[in-house]
Amino acid sequence: MNSPTPLNKYSFVLRMLHWASALIIVSLLILGFYMADIAPDASNKYDLYPLHQAFGMILLLLILFRLPVRIKGVHPKPAPHLKQWEHTLAQLVHILLYLAMISMTLSGYLMNSTYEYSQGIKMFGLFTVPDITPKSEYWSNIFHSIHSFFAWSFILLLIAHLAGVFKHRILDGKEHDVLQRML
Ligand code: HEM
Ligand code: HEM
């Protein structure tokens, strides 16, 4: 599955997973804040929830597939020209991004599953992902808080991630460009 990698690029599978996940995550962040902000008594309050939940579950599936590919696969060597601290910082941000992806999707699923009125997650009317926990308002609120906390952490991590990528691409000159490794 994870084809041999040219030394300076991530494998095709990881690149596809990276960009598909990034697109879904950015959309979920925008959609999540937008829908949560709609007044509780508005008639359209819950219109967008099923879309958010269904794409959230697709992301969970992508992560479950991506983790073993990332852990077991062949990866490019650290980008040349990076100072040791830059490399360490980039790796730390990557690990935290993985933690945020796992925490966001699991907390979303568990918030839903423990929610009193949830009857599973409808996947575009095709099938339903069942709830997996007993109902509990207490736990639903806890998972909700975790979801909100990681949403903001995600934004900070994403800013750090993009700052690193564009620093190497724009400020450090062509031979330091790390974007090519992910294209
Ligand atoms: C990486 C994946 C996800 C991201 C980035 C994301 C992002 C967000 C954001 C930014 C909010 C608004 C938070 C707030 O204003 O406090 C939100 C709310 C919500 N998310 Fe997610 N979400 C993800 C996955 C999921 C999943 C998998 C589910 C459920 C299956 C889910 C269910 C919900 C629900 C029900 C709310 C509304 C909570 C409320 O009414 O305040 N999310 N999400
Ligand atoms: C929420 C969105 C994103 C997440 C969660 C994310 C996550 C990650 C992770 C975990 C890695 C490490 C490689 C891997 O394990 O796959 C990575 C690498 C990378 N990402 Fe992102 N990323 C996101 C968005 C972006 C965006 C928008 C860009 C560019 C504009 C970008 C550019 C890169 C590049 C160039 C690398 C390779 C860095 C290197 O090896 O030095 N990422 N990303």
TrEMBL record:
Coiled-coil parts of chain: none
Required cofactor(s): heme b
Main location group: membrane
InterPro entries assigned: Cyt_b561_bac/Ni-Hgenase, Cytochrome_b561_oxidase, Di-haem_cyt_TM
Spans traversing the lipid bilayer: 12-36, 48-69, 89-110, 146-166
Keyword Transferase found: no
Location of the Cytochrome b561 bacterial/Ni-hydrogenase domain: 10-182
UniProt topology in membrane: Multi-pass membrane protein
Keywords of the record: Cell membrane, Electron transport, Heme, Iron, Membrane, Metal-binding, Transmembrane, Transmembrane helix, Transport
Domain of life (superkingdom): Bacteria
Localization annotation: Cell membrane
Keyword presence, DNA damage: no
Family of this protein: Belongs to the cytochrome b561 family.
Protein's UniProt name: Cytochrome b
Organism: Shewanella surugensis
